[in-house]
Predict the 3D structure of the following.
Amino acid sequence: MLAEIITIGDELLIGQTIDTNSAWIGEQLSLIGIKVHQVTSITDNEKHILTALEEASKRVSLVILTGGLGPTKDDITKETLCKYFNTELILNAPILEHLKERYKAFNVTFSKVNQDQAFLPKSCTILPNTRGSASGMWFEKNKVVFISLPGVPYEMKGILTDEGFPKLKTHFSTPNVIHKTVRTIGVPESKLAELLVDWENSLANHNIKLAYLPSPGFVRLRISGVDTNGEVEQIIIDKLNELPHLIGGYIYGFEKETIEQVVGNLLINQNKTLCTAESCTGGNIGHLITQVSGSSAYFNGGVISYANAVKINVLNVKEEDILKFGAVSQQVVQQMAQNARKLLKSDYAISTSGIAGPTGGTEEKPVGTVWVSIASENKTISKIYRLPYNNRERNISVASSYALNLLRKEFLED
Amino acid sequence: MLAEIITIGDELLIGQTIDTNSAWIGEQLSLIGIKVHQVTSITDNEKHILTALEEASKRVSLVILTGGLGPTKDDITKETLCKYFNTELILNAPILEHLKERYKAFNVTFSKVNQDQAFLPKSCTILPNTRGSASGMWFEKNKVVFISLPGVPYEMKGILTDEGFPKLKTHFSTPNVIHKTVRTIGVPESKLAELLVDWENSLANHNIKLAYLPSPGFVRLRISGVDTNGEVEQIIIDKLNELPHLIGGYIYGFEKETIEQVVGNLLINQNKTLCTAESCTGGNIGHLITQVSGSSAYFNGGVISYANAVKINVLNVKEEDILKFGAVSQQVVQQMAQNARKLLKSDYAISTSGIAGPTGGTEEKPVGTVWVSIASENKTISKIYRLPYNNRERNISVASSYALNLLRKEFLED
C-alpha cells in the first residue's frame, strides 16, 4: 500500500519554511503499514496543483495534501480541489457555527473572509479541525483517497490523529503493525549492532524488523512487526525482555521518553532534589531539566560557574586545585558538585567542566574533553568523557545528556 | 530562470530525516535570482531516480540532486547518473589521493569501499568536497544543468558555496541580486507593517522588494533588488538608513546576527562582564550566551534560582518580599539581579522570574507573565512582559531573547 504527500506553498520553495509536515506524516503512515513513495513540494498555482494530483493518483492509492487552505487570496487549494473533483463550494452550517464560536472565544471580530472558511467542497467528507479554522477534507476518485489538510503542523497533526488515521485504517483495512522503541545513550550504532547480532538474527524468524535510528549521543532501536495472528505483540515483548542482559547499561528509556524526563521521574519517585554546577555546559543542563513541566518539584536550581572566579568565590572550589590541576579536572569538578549540593541544599548535584571548543583544546585536554561529577550525601563519582566532536553546540548538547545519564546510573545503583 | 530540487533517500520518506537541504538550497538559489519550481523527495530506486530526472529536466533548466552518494550498496545515485547521462565510472587519481590523505589524517584504514568513492562519472565536472568523501558532480544535457551532491548538509552546503553557486552565476549569467537583512525583536509583523507602510511604498519606485520573515519574538526584514546598473545597492543602503527613524527601537542586528552575539559584542567592546540570575528561564539565557564561542571573555556565570529557597539562601532575596509580592514580581526580580551582580562580581546582571506554563498561571499572573531585571553599578531597571503563548518552550525561549534585548537597550542608553 503506497501513498504520496504533496505539500503546497511558495514559502517551502524559497526556503522560508522547512517542510516538517511530510516527515511526520511519513513516519505516522509507516506506523500503520502505509509506505510513502514520494513527497512533492509545489507552488500555490492551480495548474501545478492539478498536475501534481493527476500524476500522484496514477502511482498510489492515497494522496495527502497539506497547505494552501488559509483565508487569503494566495491560498487556492480548496478551489483547485473543486475543479479536480468536479464539485462546488457550499456553505456548511455546522462549520460556520463552530467558526463563529471560535472567534467569539478569542474576542476577534468575525469577518467575511472568516466566513469563507465555512464554504467547503460539496462532494468531500469533512474532517473537523478543532484547533483552527481550516477544515480537513477527504475525497475519493477512481478508488484513490485524497486528504487535504491545513499546513499549520499543530492543526494538521490534530486532524490526522483524531480523524484521518482512524478513517484510513478502516478504509484500507491496514495491517496491525506493532512498534516499540528502545532508547539508548552513550554507545555507537556499530557497537550496539555487534552486541545485538544474534538477537537481531533471531527476530527474523518471527518476521520482526529492527531499525537503528542514531542522533548525537543517542541511538533509538525501533522494533516492528505485523500482528496477523494476535501473537506478534507478545513475541516482541518477550524479545525486548532479553535486551537488558545484552545492552542493559545503555538503555535509558522507551518510546518518547527523553533523558531529562527519565531523570525527573526517578527523582520524583524517590522524593529527592537536584541542583547543578555547570561550567562548559553553560546552563544547558538546567535548561533541559526545566523544559520538563513540573520540574520545580525536584529541581532547586544551579550555579553556572563559567569563570574560575565564580568556581572559587561562589562554589568554594580551592584556588590551588584550579592552578594545580586546571579547571577541567576531576579535583575541580568534584568540588563543584559537592559544594553546589551543600549551597543549594539538594540531595544530588551534577557538575560539568570541559572544553566545548572550537578553541581552547590542548594536546592533553583536546576539544571534547569533559569531566562530569555526581555528588550525593555519602558519595561523589566523577567520570571523564572524550567526545569526538569539533563542534561547540554538539559538545555542549551531548555532554549535558551524558551528565544526566551519569546521574540516572548512579541513582539505579544506590 | 527555474530550478528543481530532487532529494533522494528512503529515510526522507519514512520520516527518519527531515529534509532541511531543500529549504536551504531554495533560499540560496532565490538569493542569486533562481526560483525553485518544485522539490521532489524520492526513494533510493533506479527507476524512480531516472523518472524524476527526466520529468524535472522537461520543466526547468537547473536540477539539483542531493543524497544517495554514500559508500554502501543502498546508495545508487552515482551509477544511476551514469545510466542517465550515458557515461561510465572511471578512477579519478587526484580524488583518490585526497581520500587517502583524509583517511590517514583521521587514522582510519583506507578500504576497498572507500576507494570506490574515487570512481566518478567520466562525463561530469567534479565539484570537490573538502569536508567529506563524496564528490559533487556537474552534468549538462540538452542545455539543462544537473548538480549531484551528498545529502550531509554540512558537505552539501560547502560544495555549493565553494564551487556550485559561483559556477552557476557564471554559467547562467544570473542577475546581480542584492539582499540585506534587518533583524527586529519584540514587535509583531502587523505593527511593523503599519509603521513601514509609506517606506515600503517608496521601495516599489525602485523595484526593491521587502519580505517579512517572522519567528517567535522576532521579525526579519529582507530587502532585495536586482542591481542592473550598479546603483541599486546604494539605493538600498540609503533606504536602510531611513529605518532607525521609523523602527529604530526594534532593530537589534543585521544579516545573520543573533541577539546573544550582539549583546556579546557590546560587552566585549566596552570591556564589561555579565552574569545571570534565572528563575523561569531555568539556565537558557546562560546556555544562549555560552553557545557563542569566546563568551568566556565577558560571561562570568550565573545562578539558576529555580526554587525560592535558592533565591533566598544564595541570592539573598528577602523572604518577606517573596511572601508579600510573590516570586514573580518586580521586587524579587530586581533583588535577584542586584545581588547576583555582587555575588558574581560582574558589571551587569540579567534576571528573570515568570510563569512558563502550561500550569501555574493565575488570573493576576497568567502563563506568559515574565519579569526581567537588569542591574548595573548605579542602576536597576525592571520590565514586565506578558507573552501570548500557552507553550512552555516558547515562553522560555522568547523570555530569554527579550531579557537579552533589555540588556542591549540599557547598554545603548548608558
Observations:
- The two ends of chain A are 50 Å apart (CA to CA).
- The longest strand of chain A covers residues 177-185.
- Chain A touches chain B through 69 residues (CB under 8 Å).
